[in-house]
Amino acid sequence: MEAICPNIDWDMDDMTFATKCIHGNPQHDQFGAVIPPIYQTTTFQFKNSDAGEKLFTGKEEGFFYSRMGNPTVANLEGKIAKLEGAEACCATSSGMGAISSTMLSLLKAGDHLIADETLYGCTLELFHEIQKFGIEVTFIDMAIPGEVTKTLKPNTKMIYFETPANPTLKIVDIERVCKEAHAQEGILAVTDNTFCSPVVTNPIQFGVDVVIHSASKYLNGHSDVLAGVVCGKKCIIDQIRCHGLKIFTGSVLSAIDAFLIIRGLMTLELRVKMASQNAQQVAEFLDCHPAVEKIYYPGLKSHTDHEIAKKQMKTYGSMVTFELKKGLEGGKKFLNHLHILHLAVSLGGCESLIQHPASMTHACCTKEERRAAGVTDGMIRFSVGIEGVEDIIADLKQALDMLL
């Protein structure tokens, strides 16, 4: 029985983002299934011995073992590549799997990596660990114009940054730092786009070579999958897939998790836009509350990098960070009196998640590293969900009022 395909010859690249979320990289099976099936198998049968040889030697493309490739995972990878405007995408079993696979594939002993000083705690820890393998790492503040240029060396091979940065929401001018890096031949610009998702920012449009996501967050959107993705030119992604994923880390995404993310992508734009609208109202409320010392949200005109954010972000995202006047003890009291907001790490789910970076996501960092990254003891990181914004603000207010 031949595959049943709708008689459509539209160019998917011309479709709106919401349509790409649902119909991007269509996969049609012989039964005409509207939702692609889950290929829950480790291995695939060869038609004959010659076919097996051609697949293993790379003379033909296809599936033979799910660590090397799986139809459900490949379907997901094609969808996300379209959403990011990339040639190709490689899915991994976690966000850190995506980052470590990228580093181990594209860097070697003697190479120099320039990284922004404000990063996710586990990424910072990884960048310290890879120095044991002879990779030189320099941490700088990429928000300062010219810092990348000043730090370049003949052996520099990569720059790495987050924007907005975790957890301070510092905004890096993507176009500027990419131009600074690409002024020297052979340097890759790599960014973690988790906090934005492709709904908010497409870094490749601004010159980035490699885009990484923790797909556990907005891409999946339901706090029930661990996954990561790496997007970029096909030659780069093939290198990461063949070396980093298959050999170095083995961080392979399962078919069932790929299916769940495909399902999550269908509502990606709806979820991110609603959460961003909620976050704007939450930030405006927090900005006026007497218990709050400082608020970090790029959608506020008072944010240091508001103009840069306006240039490269379609909305301002749903991450809000703020500091309490009563510091660490005030933070604990505040968090312990919340009712509907979940005290938990992670972000990008339908539900609101709130946490204390110094004792949670950045607990593995030294005090000096936290200070350099701008992480204070009284800092609270808030992933605003898609609950009714009135309920979110009411819960925040009653807990904050206890600090007055």
Automatic annotation (TrEMBL):
Gene3D superfamilies: Aspartate Aminotransferase, domain 1, Type I PLP-dependent aspartate aminotransferase-like (Major domain). The keyword Chaperone does not apply. It catalyses: L-methionine + H2O = methanethiol + 2-oxobutanoate + NH4(+). GO terms for biological process: transsulfuration. Pathway: Amino-acid biosynthesis; L-cysteine biosynthesis; L-cysteine from L-homocysteine and L-serine: step 2/2. Its cofactor is pyridoxal 5'-phosphate. InterPro entries: Cys/Met-Metab_PyrdxlP-dep_enz, L-Met_gamma_lys, PyrdxlP-dep_Trfase, PyrdxlP-dep_Trfase_major, PyrdxlP-dep_Trfase_small. Belongs to the trans-sulfuration enzymes family. L-methionine gamma-lyase subfamily. This is L-methionine gamma-lyase. The lineage of its organism: Eukaryota, Metamonada, Parabasalia, Tritrichomonadida, Tritrichomonadidae.
